[in-house]
Write a structure and sequence with these properties.
499 residues, alpha/beta, six-stranded parallel sheet, four-stranded antiparallel sheet, elongated, binds nicotinamide-adenine-dinucleotide, binds (2S)-2-hydroxybutanedioic acid, Lactate_DH/Glyco_Ohase_4_C, EC 1.1.1.37
Length: 499
């Protein structure tokens, strides 16, 4: 399985690629694509970043390559870390609405290219802010089920850590989720908290103590007051500001601590990347695991009886094809109320972002995006919205919408290096995209003795054949590849060219 990181040279992107390699999430036969901007500093720096990663991790690094155009993104999992960010300095606002308009353009450019040239299987993890705008734009182009915003998972890990610290245990002994909008409209779902080794009565008592008699009703006001207080204290002593945060309730700390980190001049890139790599790992792992994420809902969740249609952070089941289910039981009133508030805030952010990604079904007051997948979770892609000419194979729709006529046959002529891993890499590109070989033949190694020709016959839509050609061409063990229609299916040339 291959991973592409958009914005790989940014603070977050650089951490994501480093942790992907350092945590050995990708086997050596997988490909990690570092995506920069053509012509800009990042376009140059991706080459240097690649060299640096190989220098550091040669023993276990995956194949690492670079790309400079959205059209060249080829991967099974795409991490979106490109775009503008809020400055990290004292007095800077973390209000993400200011980023929405600029980053919507970035999201749209990549979403269109992946929809047009991708395999139809990519799972997209949106890190860039506003996460909800990124999810809305990507989900519209690629289908809701293939797109997950990472922010709710980072907020969830922060929530678990703050609870763990107060109870004197490690984070992995705490369960529970944060939903809502990433950032200040995050909604700590206290009712989902589970503590390992505690029975229900012990857990209820611990949660009561942790909450200090508060509900979420005053949460937005508490956050505003906390920020004002931190500005004052941090003006003379940043250390004292962090000590002040330590005295606050766990849920308030979830929002206040990262906010203070940005005010301090540091960024939150390490924790952000760690949470992102968790999600990549889940998708690559092949199993379904419960996480939290921002997703484009199409009525899978009802709040106070109202089905939600729009982007919202919720606990969900994530697996190799994207997210399949939302796991949200009936909630107490204060959590329902805050989630509805967050949904409304997301709606406003999407409207402020404007543009095509923010138009569409505005159910349940959430505004914004039209989620395209139904509750069945078949991973709707652009084809399913009836666009012509993008028909794709069964792998794309999870068995739904199988084309009635057989897909055309193709032959790939591959110049592959005469070394271990060439055939494995080649078969990996096809198998991870759900395309079987009809025939594979190798020729004698000739010429300089370093490379030989491999012929692969397969059936696929033209779009997928071109995506495979690009993916194979990017293997480090491949010198060149040409895919052409199998001879018996090549249409006869027009009469004037036949003469
Ligand atoms: N979801 C989260 O939990 C979370 C946490 C931290 C940061 N973020 C977000 O991640 C994003 C990246 O943050 P960062 O600190 O790495 O920023 P950064 O400024 O350090 O890096 C931004 C990267 O995006 C690229 N980029 C900028 N404009 C682009 C464009 N128009 N097209 C393509 N690439 C472009 C840059 O070349 C660079 O590689 C920001 O939107 C930030 O708000 C999200
Ligand atoms: O970069 C940011 O805007 C902050 C980030 O989303 C975070 O939650 O740490």
């Amino acid at each position: 399985m291959d991973v592409a990181v958009l914005g790989a040279t940014g603070d977050v992107g650089r951490q994501v690629v480093t942790q992907l390699v350092e945590r050995r999430v990708l086997p050596t036969t997988s490909r990690l694509q570092l995506v920069g901007r053509p012509g800009g500093a990042s376009g140059r720096a991706v080459h240097g970043l690649r060299a640096d990663l190989v220098d550091a991790y040669d023993e276990h690094a995956p194949l690492i390559d670079v790309a400079h155009s959205p059209d060249d993104v080829v991967a099974d999992v795409v991490v979106v870390a490109a775009g503008a960010t809020t400055p990290a300095r004292s007095g800077a606002s973390l209000d993400r609405t200011g980023l929405a308009v600029a980053n919507r353009e970035v999201f749209a450019e990549y979403a269109d290219a992946i929809a047009r040239y991708g395999s139809g299987h990519e799972v997209v993890i949106v890190v860039s802010n506003p996460v909800e705008v990124g999810v809305a734009v990507m989900a519209r182009a690629l289908g809701a089920r293939r797109v997950v915003g990472m922010g709710a998972w980072l907020d969830t890990l922060r929530f678990r850590r703050e609870i763990a610290v107060e109870l004197g245990v490690r984070r992995h002994r705490v369960g529970g989720f944060v939903g809502g909008q990433h950032g200040e409209d995050a909604v700590p779902l206290w009712s989902t908290v589970r503590l390992s080794g505690h029975d229900v009565a012990e857990r209820d008592r611990a949660v009561r103590l942790l909450r200090r008699g508060r509900t979420l009703d005053a949460f937005p006001d508490e956050i505003a007051a906390a920020k004002a207080e931190l500005v004052e204290v941090a003006a003379t002593d940043v250390g004292a500001a962090y000590r002040l945060i330590d005295t606050w309730p766990a849920d308030l700390r979830v929002v206040a601590r990262p906010w203070m980190t940005h005010q301090s001049g540091a960024k939150t890139a390490t924790a952000t990347a760690s949470a992102t790599v968790d999600l990549v790992e889940v998708v690559l792992d092949g199993r379904e695991i419960v996480v939290a994420g921002q997703v484009a809902l199409d009525g899978e969740v009802a709040l106070a009886g109202e089905p939600q249609r729009g982007v919202l952070g919720v606990p969900l089941v994530l697996g190799p094809e994207g997210w399949t289910r939302v796991l949200l039981d009936a909630l107490p009133d204060d959590e329902t109320h805050r989630l509805r508030g967050a949904a409304a805030a997301v709606g406003s952010a999407l409207r402020a972002a404007g543009g095509p990604g923010a138009r569409g079904g505005a159910g349940a007051g959430t505004g914004g995006v039209a989620a395209t997948a139904g509750a069945g979770g078949t991973g709707a892609g652009p084809d399913r919205r009836g666009q012509p000419g993008t028909g794709d194979g069964p792998g794309r729709d999870g068995g739904v919408g199988r084309p009635e006529t057989p897909e055309p046959s193709w032959v790939a002529q591959v110049e592959g290096l005469h070394r271990a891993g060439t055939l494995t890499g080649l078969t990996g590109v096809f198998s991870t995209r759900g395309v079987s070989f009809e025939r594979l033949a190798t020729e004698e190694v000739e010429g300089d003795g370093d490379a030989g020709t491999i012929h692969v016959s397969f059936r696929a839509s033209e779009r997928r054949a071109r995506a495979l050609e690009r993916a194979v061409g990017r293997l480090a063990t491949v010198r060149s590849v040409v895919v052409h229609g199998a001879p018996h299916e090549t249409p006869a040339p027009p009469p004037d060219r036949a003469r």
